[in-house]
Amino acid sequence: MAKIAYILLCHKDPEAVVQQAEQLTAAGDYMAIHFDGRAAAEDYQLIRTELDGNPNVTFARKRIKCGWGEWSLVQATLHALQSALEDFPRATHFYMLSGDCMAVKTAEYAHRFLDEHDRDFIESFDFFESDWIKTGMKEDRLIYRHFFNERKHKQLFYWSHGLQKRLGLQRDIPADIQVQIGSQWWCLRRRTVEWILGFIRTRRDVMRFFRTTWIPDETFFQTLVRHLIPESEIDPRTLTFLMFTDYGMPVNFYNDHYDLLLSQDFLFARKISPEAKELKLRLGRLYAAQGVSFQISNEGRSLYRFLAQRGRSGRRFAPRFWETESSLGRQRELLVVVCKKWHVAKRLLEQIRQATSIPAVEYLFDEEDTALPDLGGIQAALMKRTRHRRALLRMLFEYYETDQLIICLDPAAIDLMNDFHSDRSSTRFLHIDCAFSDDYLAGHAQRTGLAGARTPQLTLERLLPTIRNDILHEGDRIRDAGYSRLYNLREGASTEENAGQLSGFLNLPRDKAMEIAASQSLFAD
Questions:
Q1: Is 391 exposed, middle or buried (0-12, 13-18, 19+ CB in 10 A)?
Q2: Residue 30: strand pairing partners
Q3: Of 55, 216, 412, 473, which one's alpha carbon is 20 to 30 angstroms from that of 122?
Q4: pLDDT tens-digit profile of 222-279?
Q5: What number of CA atoms fall less than 13 Å from residue 420's CA on the CB side?
Q6: Using one digit for the tens of pLDDT, what is the confidence trace for 464-494?
Q7: For residue 387, which phi and psi values (nearest 5 degrees)?
Q8: For residue 366, with 0-12 CB atoms within 10 Å meaning exposed, 13-18 middle and 19 or more buried, which class applies?
Q9: Rounded-to-integer distance, Cα 25 and Cα 39, Å
């Protein structure tokens, strides 16, 4: 009978990891865990302490720091696979999971299904001929070397890519492999995993190639399985049910999706919303149950497409993604930096990036050319960003795989501030109170079209008091809005005072906040 070793890559929520491991091993299956090396040491220790007594759980021998789109995700998977192979000699299948996945069938059903289908289940489609990649970079993923993380070092990533293109530094794909692409959520037989690990020990050229490929977790295993295993033994599908919105983001499942998920022809589903407590509880009990029958209708994707195309309102099954959940999420923290001097806020964000790992986006509702990832078009225009503001921010939270996000707003955007403050997420504001010289105000008048290069000095002198009063009025509106978590950074305040405000806003230790507040050039014009 089939025995499954689950390969779990995770980076947060240690309590949920423990719960997931206990649920999936309760029926006699196994789990090998790689917990991201970037995560807090105490979180990893909690997982080890809780699960060390479980003989069906093992851990990757080596923890590494993982980054989206990097080789590190493949390397972490290989570490976990190696541990699973060594520690679970009775495992017949190896199933890739994330912390957002949950079983939608019983262990009894899953074992019977794998016994009846002696195949490797992995999406693997020709990289160049298929249309699996809908938007963004395609061939350039392979023919150029990618050394930088696109999300953390965007400028370096695209600078390196552009430089290679200009210099014609294309590279060859190893001659005897045909690159494939597909979902990273696969289920492979033991023999296949052993062959893959044997292959990578002898083919250093292939390993070098994939180490600098962009998003290799969508190509590495998919290519090697096709290279090593006869086509008749591969089912090019994933056993994990997942859907994507019109904007290319994963659809989240909620409490009222239980019956829908059980009726799909899949063993697992992704992504289960963190807020779907009841759904998680019911699915957690399901895996170890016996004698459960399932009526497979498999209508999930067509039903979602039907409802989404018609823009149907409501939460059941599949409304458009911005209607599915109007909140950013109760567990998320939106940190809003509000400053009239945009260059001051941008300097502060740079200091925060150096001191923390919190993703930060500059004036995304004010500047058309703010650096944003490709989110399927919703980020293309200021009007669209503002109209779908919460959808945009939810997608940024998903893109950066974080529960904390910093954005910048101009003090005039009081409507946006009020909207975000009313959200069920935790929202904190940092108002930067700057001094405004006449020269700055004159420049501001020109930037906003209130004055031109040839505006007479007398007209400017009459205009500046009005502009100054407007800026002061914007600050008063923010202070009078009654925001529950409003912090203030003042140009004339001491470093200690400003550090106290930053500490509260960022939830940082005092010494870290002092490093940021002590920047000598922060308020300079």
A1: buried
A2: 5
A3: 55
A4: 999 999 999 999 999 999 999 887 666 788 898 888 888 998 999 999 999 888 889 9
A5: 31
A6: 887 788 888 888 999 998 898 999 999 889 9
A7: -65, -40
A8: middle
A9: 24
Beta-carbon contacts of 400 under 8 Å, excluding residues fewer than 6 positions away, are 151, 359
User: What value does the mean pLDDT take over residues 36-60?
Assistant: 95
Distance CA 293, CA 411 (A): 58
Helix (H, G, I), strand (E, B) or coil at 98: strand
Helix (H, G, I), strand (E, B) or coil at 426: strand
Query: How far is 100 from 17, CA to CA, in rounded Å?
Result: 10
**Long-range interactions of 341-345: CB distance < 8 A, separation 24+:** 341/432, 341/434, 341/440, 341/523, 341/525, 342/366, 342/367, 342/408, 342/410, 344/432, 344/434, 344/522, 344/523, 345/408, 345/432
On the question of pLDDT at 218 being above 80, the answer is yes
* Residue type present at position 261: L
| Residue 361 β-bridge partners | 407
Which region among 293-302, 390-399, 511-520 has the lowest average model confidence (pLDDT)? 293-302
The residues, any chain, with a CB within 8 Å of residue 264's CB and separated by 6 or more, are: 104, 241, 296, 297, 298, 300
Each residue of 76-91: b (16+ CB within 10 Å) or e? bbbbbbbbbbebbeeb
Give me the pLDDT at residue 449, please. Answer: 67
Can you give the pLDDT at residue 323?
A: 36
Q: Which of 405, 417, 437, 408 is nearest to 479 (CA)?
A: 417
DSSP letters, 378-402, are TTS-HHHHHHTHHHHHHHHHHHHT-
Backbone angles phi, psi at 169, to 5 degrees: -90, 50
Is the pLDDT score of 414 beyond 50? yes
Give the pLDDT band (50/70/90) at residue 28: very high
**Exposure of 77 in the CB half-sphere (CA atoms within 13 A):** 24
At residue 248, the pLDDT reads 66
Among 342, 399, 339, 393, residue whose Cα is nearest residue 367: 342
pTM for the whole structure: 0.66
502's tokens:
């930053």
Q: What angle do CA 80, 81, 82 make, to 5 degrees?
A: 90
Give Cα separations from 110 to 54, 117, 286 (angstroms).
22, 11, 12
Span 168-174, mean pLDDT? 94
